[in-house]
């Protein structure tokens, strides 16, 4: 939510600063905020790789754990996995980061070189996992649809017949904010509801692929948003159509589709959820970097509809691949179940 709202609201701020103080001032603001974030992360963020005991040593927790042990003594039939779940449940919320986790420098682990190398190599290995690659493409596609509108909005909206001022071009991004908030509010609950309904029909057995049908309504919203926005650019339709339908529907797509796709990938590979986001971010940023070289030249040669349709293909194509993923996902998970990459999340 924070990431995408930052992308939505950033141009609003940039447009007003550019009009009043010049475009260079926005970069100085960005530099100041980046420095602030760096300092706060350095000082206030606990080290998550900190080595800790599996069960904190406090009397309250030991007593609770002892009760769990007594359960096992009273009923020898209790499975060890059930007892482990009990202990994990009573541990959540009982501790807090220790002061040593906030030290600016900590003694590295003895095997830090191999751990560092392992963490660098892990995302490259995950590119070969079809489910993770598919989820990453469904992050990159919608995010780069937003980038396409950001790259082109100033050229289109500031020219005839719209004649928007720099600040008005910035305010146009509120359409993304509204659409994005709708996507954020609906994607998670809808995918969970769809998965729960499918679980009940499957006699209570949950499969990760059960949340994928939730992408269907967002598929059609994405189609309408990109097509209307691209055709509206090309034929100079009234700006409310371009902003409300083109930008607004794209905002829904930008937040909803990655939410469902990443949730599915994490359901499949929980121990490596962090590495999944690394893969998604790399693909998204590489595609976004390349866009700066071809979008505006293509628009100059063939109009704005042509690059809009390229983005349409790059977004809708991976979403359509969700159909074979839905039917073959379980098989693909079996193929990767014995991978040593799972140990990286421990």
Distinctive features:
346 residues, Growth Hormone, Chain: A, mainly alpha, 0% strand, 13 helices
Q: How would you explain this protein's 3D organization?
A:
- This protein has helices spanning 2-21, 23-44, 59-74, 80-91, 112-126, 130-157, 166-171, 174-201, 215-235, 239-268, 273-302, 305-320, 322-335.
- With 346 residues, the protein is an all-alpha fold.
- The chain has a domain at 1-10 and 130-337: Growth Hormone, Chain: A, CATH 1.20.1250.20.
- The two termini are 27 Å apart.
Number of continuous helical runs? 13
The CATH class of the domain at 1-10 and 130-337 is: Mainly Alpha
Following the backbone from N to C, one meets helices and strands in this order, namely HHHHHHHHHHHHH
Beta-strand fraction estimate: under 5%
Task: Specify the helix fraction band.
Answer: over 70%
Detail the poorly predicted runs: 54-78
Alpha-carbon Rg, integer? 24 Å
CATH topology of the domain at 1-10 and 130-337: Growth Hormone, Chain: A
CATH architecture annotation name of the domain at 1-10 and 130-337:
Up-down Bundle
What would the principal axes of the Cα set say about the shape?
globular
- The CATH H-level superfamily of the domain at 1-10 and 130-337 is MFS general substrate transporter like domains
Please write out the topology:
Elements lengths: L1 H20 L1 H22 L14 H16 L5 H12 L20 H15 L3 H28 L8 H6 L2 H28 L13 H21 L3 H30 L4 H30 L2 H16 L1 H14 L11
GO molecular function, one term: transmembrane transporter activity
Keywords: Membrane, Transmembrane, Transmembrane helix
Protein name: Major facilitator superfamily (MFS) profile domain-containing protein
